[in-house]
Design brief:
441 residues; alpha/beta; DNA polymerase, domain 1; TIM Barrel; 2 domains; 10-stranded mixed β-sheet
Length: 441
């Protein structure tokens, strides 16, 4: 049953300079493009985003961490597997439902860990029940989103249940066609807060005998700006002792954080890497993906190409199609030139309407023509149809609505800036604004 809607207060924003300083310090090891060194296992519970005194979310713990907790209590370590089975498989609502554990152990678990870090605060359904948009409320009342999409099977295709999840509350990248960009950056999500979006969706599917078949990190936030927590979440999703989803059914998206891509390449994961491309010409991509002012598109694609070579996995390039902005023949030809000869697949996605932009989706005949120009150079292309438009299923739309609409003068000023900047980009002029993320290499 859906819970009452969250309040209309906006999530607290972190000022952009402070957020950048935090991000730069957190990603210092990425400058060397090597994996983080192994950390000594500790049973001390980490500070969580819900506050300094909040207990860790149990979904974020690996088997070894739970085993260490039981060992310190003088209890057999096999109980860790019993707990994880309850977390990931039996759907136990809380520790008191784990009948295989002594009562004292159940009470200790309840005191030491949070069984759920997110709740389905609001659930809306569209497309005849095939799309579910969940607005989740976290422990500090920050709102995030996930979207569950059901694709029925047929004679030549299997049934799919795909979940799009968030890795941050808000986003610092600020792509102007994205509703999450209007929210600004709130904070990174903890590992358990990422994983509990998955658990919530799995519980909704279970009564119908369905399970999740695909998980994509394409919700709110830039996953590679919270890479450590995202990698921990992917490990849990792939772990047979926990969620047990094959790595090739997991997709992690980025708007072009090159050090993060290189770090992933060094790790050699088998999940799919997706690049939010949106434009192949730097002047236009400066506007559509402000991170491009720090890592230009050729550098992003070069890093992605290295990743594909190292892992043998095809890169997925996502392109939001915006009418009269990035859908011209020049744009198609630039993209074809940039991506030809690479292990790549291009997804063309009509833009979802966003209140603060002056733009609309490209007409379908224009998108089809764009796709054909890409296919002429041998690129694999899919045109995606939008899901859940009547429930604001695009990234950040529902959270932005609940946070309250920006003032009319603010929207007007933003639209004027976007019209001017996109017009300049179409003339081939590079942006003079600084990138939203300014790390050194």
């Amino acid at each position: 049953m859906a819970r009452p809607a969250v309040g209309t207060a906006r999530p607290a924003r972190i000022g952009r300079p402070a957020a950048l300083e935090r991000a730069q310090a957190r990603f210092e090891p990425m400058r060397q493009c090597h994996p983080m060194p192994d950390q000594t296992l500790s049973v001390v519970q980490p500070r969580t985003s819900a506050g300094p005194s909040a207990a860790a979310g149990i979904a974020g713990l690996a088997v070894a961490q739970l085993e260490a907790w039981f060992r310190e209590r003088g209890e057999p370590t096999f109980r860790a597997r019993q707990v994880l089975d309850a977390v990931w498989r039996s759907g136990a609502p809380d520790p008191s439902a784990i009948s295989t554990l002594p009562a004292g152990t159940r009470a200790a678990l309840a005191a030491a860990f949070r069984w759920d870090t997110v709740a389905d605060s609001e659930l809306t359904v569209a497309d005849g029940g095939r799309t579910q948009k969940a607005l989740h409320r976290l422990g500090d009342d920050v709102a995030i989103e996930s979207v569950l999409m059901h694709y029925p099977g047929g004679p030549d295709r299997r049934e799919r249940n795909t979940l799009c999840i968030s890795s941050q509350a808000g986003c610092a990248v600020g792509c102007p066609f994205c509703a999450t960009g209007e929210l600004g950056f709130g904070r990174d999500l903890e590992t358990a807060e990422i994983l509990d979006q998955v658990r919530a969706a799995a519980r909704r599917l279970a009564p119908r005998g369905r399970r999740l078949t695909n998980i994509v990190f394409m919700g709110m936030g830039e996953p590679l700006l919270n890479l450590d927590r995202v990698l921990e979440a992917v490990e849990a999703l792939n772990d047979p002792a926990r969620f047990g989803l094959g790595a090739r059914h997991i997709t992690v998206s980025t708007s072009g954080v090159v050090p993060g891509i290189r770090r992933l390449t060094a790790l050699g994961p088998q999940f799919t890497l997706a690049i939010s491309l949106h434009a192949a010409r730097d002047p236009l991509r400066d506007v559509l993906v402000p991170l491009n002012r720090r890592w230009p598109v050729a550098e992003v694609v070069a890093a992605a190409r290295e990743h594909a070579t190292a892992t043998g996995r095809r890169i997925s390039y996502e392109v939001t199609m915006i009418g009269g902005v990035n859908d011209t023949d020049d744009d198609a030809d630039a993209m074809a030139s940039l991506l030809r000869g690479t292990l790549a697949h291009v997804n063309l996605i009509p833009m979802n309407a966003v209140a603060h932009t002056p733009w609309t989706a490209s007409p379908m005949p224009v998108i089809e023509h764009f796709a054909e120009r890409l296919r002429t150079v041998g690129l694999s292309v899919t045109i995606r149809r939008n899901r859940g438009q009547e429930v604001g299923a695009a990234c950040g739309q529902l959270a932005a609505e609940r946070a309250g609409a920006p003032s009319a003068p603010s929207v007007a000023r933003r639209r004027e800036r976007l019209v001017a900047s996109s017009a300049a980009a179409l003339r081939g002029e590079r942006s003079t604004e600084t990138a939203p993320v300014g790390w050194d290499d």
